[in-house]
């Protein structure tokens, strides 16, 4: 079996007001054996300095934007940041790009039209600037964006999906591309409280057509999307339970073809607190020597 990568996707790294707290968390994750840290680049014109601070303060762990939106950060700005990071820390920074969502983009006054064409044009500009395809990945859900991630990048970084989608994505991009889905989890063995925590997360995402349209392709319906998600949908999207049970849920994505799973530990929506204990427990289950 090929080596699998176990990564972290956590809003804490952008939400923390303390650069030192963010760095301390990154150092611990590196020591535990996690491969990469993913977090959003936000909606500004530049990629936050926090990505570079984590690279500068660690020695091995990768850092990736999950995602940088193509509507806000220009190709020139993104390429310059990626090139600077590559010079300082070869092979450790990965530029994750995504088309975001109409409600978020248009809230800033931008006209959200033809997101696929927008992504193609953005990649064309990155090519012209010399940023190699293997140094970027796309937040791909549907068939066309998955094919684009196969043809124009190192691979795909799907978000808010099921293991069934991971299997479809692997088929779409083929064996030679990185497949690194984000998977949110709740480390809590109590069904009622675990699902309540999960629904704090799912309730917002289930209002976004990009995600619900993708889930519909796999047979989910409006009934599943109501009230923060049916139990069946919550359980399919968000592994919960003991660390062993969560690890078993994540294993489904590896078996479906993921090279790397970016674990987001849900802790009630508090982006200022890092769920260190959960990541320690999951490392023992998922990482050799963790």
Description of the structure:
The strands form 2 sheets. Strands 1, 2, 3, 4, 5, 6, 9, 10 and 11 form a 9-stranded parallel beta sheet that branches. The longest helix has 15 residues, at about 115-130. The chain is about 50% helix and about 15% strand. It is globular. The chain has one domain (about 5-285): TIM Barrel (Alpha-Beta Barrel), CATH 3.20.20.30. By secondary structure, it is α/β, with parallel strands linked by helices. The model has no long low-confidence stretch (mean pLDDT about 95). It is built from 14 helices and 11 strands. GO terms for molecular function: oxidoreductase activity, acting on paired donors, with incorporation or reduction of molecular oxygen. This is Probable F420-dependent oxidoreductase, MSMEG_4141 family. It holds the Pfam family Bac_luciferase. InterPro entries: Bact_Lucif_Oxidored (IPR050766), Lucif-like_OxRdatse_MSMEG_4141 (IPR019922), Luciferase-like_dom (IPR011251), Luciferase-like_sf (IPR036661).
Comma- or semicolon-separated keywords:
about 290 residues, alpha/beta, TIM Barrel, two-stranded parallel sheet, 14 helices, 11 strands
CATH superfamily: Luciferase-like domain
What is the C-level CATH assignment? Alpha Beta
Q: State Rg.
A: 18 Å
> Strand percentage, roughly?
5-15%
Q: Encode the helix/strand succession as letters.
A: EHHEHEEHEHHEHEHEEHHHHEHEH
Helix content: 40-55%
Give the biggest beta sheet: 9 strands, parallel
At the third CATH level, what is the topology name?
TIM Barrel
Q: How many distinct helices?
A: 14
The SS-based structural class is alpha/beta
Average pLDDT over all residues: 94
Low-confidence stretches: none
Care to count the β-strands? 11
CATH architecture: Alpha-Beta Barrel
User: What is the 3D shape?
Assistant: globular
Total domain modules: 1
Separation of the first and last Cα atoms: 19 Å
């Amino acid at each position: 079996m090929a080596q699998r990568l176990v990564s972290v996707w956590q809003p804490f790294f952008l939400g923390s007001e303390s650069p030192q707290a963010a760095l301390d968390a990154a150092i611990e994750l590196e020591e535990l054996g996690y491969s990469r840290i993913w977090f959003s680049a936000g909606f500004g014109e530049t990629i936050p300095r926090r990505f570079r601070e984590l690279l500068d303060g660690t020695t091995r762990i990768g850092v990736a934007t999950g995602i940088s939106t193509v509507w806000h950060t220009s190709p020139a700005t993104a390429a310059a940041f990626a090139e600077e990071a590559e010079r300082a820390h070869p092979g450790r920074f990965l530029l994750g790009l995504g088309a975001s969502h109409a409600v978020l983009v248009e809230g800033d006054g931008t006209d959200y039209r033809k997101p696929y064409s927008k992504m193609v044009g953005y990649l064309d500009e990155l090519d012209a600037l010399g940023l190699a395809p293997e140094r970027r990945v796309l937040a791909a859900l549907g068939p066309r964006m998955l094919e684009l991630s196969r043809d124009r990048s190192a691979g795909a970084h799907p978000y808010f999906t099921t293991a069934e989608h991971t299997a479809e994505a692997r088929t779409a991009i083929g064996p030679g591309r990185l497949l690194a889905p984000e998977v949110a989890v709740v480390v809590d063995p109590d069904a009622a409280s675990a699902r309540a925590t999960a629904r704090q997360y799912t309730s917002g995402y289930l209002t976004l057509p990009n995600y619900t349209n993708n889930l519909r392709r796999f047979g989910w319906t409006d009934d599943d999307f109501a009230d923060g998600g049916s139990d069946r949908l919550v359980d399919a999207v968000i592994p919960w339970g003991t660390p062993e049970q969560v690890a078993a849920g994540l294993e489904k994505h590896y078996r479906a073809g993921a090279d790397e799973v970016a674990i987001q530990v849900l802790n009630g929506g508090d982006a200022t607190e890092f769920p260190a204990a959960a990541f320690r427990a999951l490392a023992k289950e998922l990482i050799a020597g963790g």
